[in-house]
Amino acid sequence: MLLAPSILAADLSDLRGAVESCEAGGADLVHVDVMDGHFVPNLTFGIPVLAALARDTDLEMDVHLMVSNPADLLGDYIAAGAGWVSVHWEVTDHLDRLLGQLRDQGVKAGVALNPATPVEVVSDVLGQLDFVLLMSVNPGFAGQKFLPYVLLKARRLRRMIEEGSHSVLIEMDGGIGAGNIGEVLSAGVDMCVAGSAIFGTADPIAAMASLRALAGAEA
User: Fold this and answer.
1) pLDDT single digits (tens) 132-173
2) How far apart are CA 203 and CA 216, in angstroms?
């Protein structure tokens, strides 16, 4: 399992400390939720914030663009330090073009799908993807309740990937914690985004270790 703590759930007055906790806790990536107040009803992290966080860490930045105009922002976020970038299927008419831009610039190319969006919409572009991000809550806010039916989507997507012999990771984001990480991984998910389950605790580093242990038990 790859673990990507979401700093959206961290103390926003100490994001540097949150990244340091990710380093100490053995995280694989730092998940950065970019929200524009248009595609989703919230505003979060802009390009200068990402650049400041990426500057002093070796952890890759997993940037989830919850924005209505991803094509206008890709270059700036990549220049600021994004190593993995996911764009929403729901907001682009030219997904093939965006994925090509991401791959040409040397970053991991991903597509994010809202809970009610079927995984079959990405069937024709799986060969161009490095990962698919399945939202297990409706995007926009941290701390929401996990939507169990997304596990069925993960299983369908895993079959699609295997039947096509694609090298595509499945990432899941929203409401993942100690109580459900086992069934998330059993559904074929490779990378878990966890926010409140880590930064909503008194000891984020210990919380990461606990999730790792549970993931190991599941394996």
Assistant:
1) 999 999 988 777 899 999 999 999 999 999 999 999 999 999
2) 20
Rounded to the nearest 5 degrees, what angle is found at the Cα of 65, between the Cα atoms of 71 and 181? 145
Q: How far apart are CA 185 and CA 191, in angstroms?
A: 8
- pLDDT for res 219: 54
Go through the domains of the chain in sequence order and give each one's CATH number.
2-218 (3.20.20.70)
CB-based contacts of 89, cutoff 8 Å, min separation 6 = 95, 111, 112, 113, 117, 121, 122
Active-site residue, selected from the candidate residues 11, 28, 33, 203: 33
- Active-site option among 11, 56, 173, 203: 173
Which residues partner with 85 through β-bridges?
A: 63, 109
Name the amino acid, one letter, at 216.
Answer: G
Q: Can 33 be counted among the known catalytic residues?
A: yes
Give the CA distances from residue 97 to residues 35, 102, 103, 176, 204, in Å, rounded to whole numbers and listed in that order.
22, 9, 10, 32, 38
Residue 19 CA to residue 122 CA, distance in Å, equals: 32
Task: Decide if 72 is catalytic.
Answer: no
Amino acid letter, 111:
V
pLDDT attached to residue 218 = 61
pTM of the predicted protein model = 0.96
Could you tell me the CA-to-CA distances from 60 to 82, 122, 158, 176 in Å, in that order?
7, 25, 24, 21
- Residues of the chain falling short of pLDDT 50: none
